[in-house]
Structure prediction request, 210 residues.
Amino acid sequence: MIQLINPNDIHSAADTWNGFIYQGKVALYHVLKLINERDSVDGLHLQLDSLEDFAIIRYENNEPKPITLHQVKAVKSHYYSRYKEAFEKLEQRKDNFPCDDEAYFHLATENEETKADIEDKHAKLKIYEYDGNPYCKIDELQDKIKVQASNCLNKLGLIHLSNDNYLEILCNELESLITNNIVLIHAQNHSPNGDSINRQIFRMENRPRY
Prediction:
């Protein structure tokens, strides 16, 4: 059989696309986890793809103040060298945008270095933990989101809604909120005389909140 197309000539955006999807899911997981762990999340906001891949912020005099910074890497490599530059970038971000809490790095694959070793080399960041693990595989994240969503419903006294069917609908809707926000920014960027994406994010994140 004659091979008509050389696989090396095919350029796919699947990895990049999946990386953005994973990033959004990680942000959702963290927000749900915050709701479950804190007595109150009043005044906290999820900021997407601006200060970092995502950030938790609050506002002081209508200016964003970082609480936590989050960098997400959905790559399959387990080599420390593959992430070293990204670790250093996150540390620099924390210097440039001091946060009240920590700068977290999210891994989708177990690293050859331990969590303690990475944090020893990069003292300004923390490796994010998922139920005690310093990484979360892409195919495991959705189930973890559902667990956090179920815990939220129970915490809010809505235990009667905590069934598989409703949880699936709820998680899809929450993910859509994140996706739609990013799509809106890109749509405005493509409109006639539309602002650049960076200017839109700045404008959206610095508008007054009431």
Summary: Residues 28 and 177 are 10 Å apart (CA to CA). The longest strand covers residues 63-73. Helices lie at 14-37, 80-96, 115-121, 138-155, 164-190, 197-205. Confidence is low (pLDDT under 50) at residues 196-210.
